Amino acid sequence: MQKDYTNRESQSIFMEKETEAGGTPEQEETKIMGIIGWIHPEEYSFDCMLRMERFQIRLMMEYMEPETEAAMGIALKANPKAAWVFEHKCPEMAGKIRALTTRAPEGLTPEQIRKAEVTVLGAYEDFVVYTTPEVMGEKCDFICGWNRERLFELCDLDGKTVLDVGSGTGRLAFAAAEKAAFVVASEPVDSLREYMRDGIARKGIRNMRVCDGLCDCLPFPDNSFDVVMSGHVVGDRFREEVDELTRVTKPGGWLLDVPGDQHHQTGHNEQLLADGWEELAYTGTFGTTTCRYRKQVRKEKGGTDSIE
Questions:
Q1: Beta bridge partners of 303
Q2: What is the pLDDT at residue 38?
Q3: Contacts of 163 (CB under 8 A, 6+ apart)
Q4: Any idea where the domains of the chain sit in the sequence?
């Protein structure tokens, strides 16, 4: 699952540019893209919010621009089932959710409500697209533009036990299953877990399983895997997340950070570099530089350290 909570104002900025160009409101609406550009949010029902997980609701409530916050209140007030799910699935945010709906104005037209819904859907496009995993494979650049050889270059997977953390649609896990003895795909979003399970059954894969799990709280004992990998996952709680990935990796095993190719330049991951990970860069499918990272785990009593 990708995490990207920057530039939340991009949708409204895009609409302002269209207005300056002389477009009508109706024309502008058909041109709206989400913050990342994967979907047209007006094509999604707000009912997709009923499928949000607890961690997603928490993050949405924590990362809101003023415009998005006002729109969220309107949308939740007009969709009481979604508001109920948000409150009960994420009780730590229930107070904020109730405050948002209480502040939302009364007597809005269906058009005004739908505009608020689309604003929210576009602001959290990365979460919305998870409800349609098949769209991710077609529209998400870091999936459709990626070559699995970029994973195989990082370490030897033959005969290894591998964990893919934040597996998403299984970009890394399905590739690893071609070589590894066994692969576990850990993914906290139910719709993505079921998508991977369907893929495993359809392809007749026998050495891969799917489970629930967050990258800072994995359901495995210490020293369980030869290789622990992820892509577009680590960063929100960097130290806790890397420590947890390290905990489940065997001594001498590998930690891999394997982002996919993207249209925009992503730059270096300074947190991983400062933590002693080795950077391996290449020019990707879209002509931009993609940086992968790896670290070999050396464990001693009382801690972990070093890279080779």
A1: 300
A2: 85
A3: 183, 184, 186, 218, 220, 224, 225, 227, 228, 229, 248
A4: 10-131, 141-305
**CATH architecture type of domain 141-305:** 3-Layer(aba) Sandwich (3.40)
Q: What is the mean pLDDT of the chain?
A: 88
Q: How far is CA 215 from CA 40, 68, 73, 190, 295, in A?
A: 29, 27, 30, 15, 17
- How far is CA 199 from each of CA 85, 183, 194, 205, 208, rounded to the nearest angstrom? 29, 14, 9, 8, 10
Taking CA atoms, 211 is separated from 94, 147, 223, 260, in Å, by 28, 25, 18, 22
pLDDT of residue 11: 34
The residue among 167, 161, 233, 238 whose CA lies nearest residue 200 is 167
Q: How many residues are there in the chain? A: 308
Looking at residue 125, what DSSP letter applies? H
At 188-205, the pLDDT tens digits run: 999 999 999 999 999 999
Q: Cα(37)–Cα(245) distance, rounded to whole angstroms?
A: 30
Q: Which amino acid is at 285?
A: T
Q: What is the pLDDT of residues 88-113, one digit of tens each?
A: 999 999 999 999 999 999 999 999 99
Can you tell me the distance from the alpha carbon of 233 to that of 59, in angstroms, rounded to the nearest whole number? 14
Pairing of strands 298-300, 182-186: unpaired
Per-position DSSP letters for 9-70, written without gaps between them:
THHHHHHHHHHHTT--HHHHHHH---SSSS--GGGS-GGGGGG--HHHHHHHHHS--HHHHH
- Inter-residue long-range contacts of 178-182, CB under 8 Å, 24+ positions, other chains counted: 178/148, 179/152, 180/207, 180/227, 181/207, 182/207, 182/208, 182/209
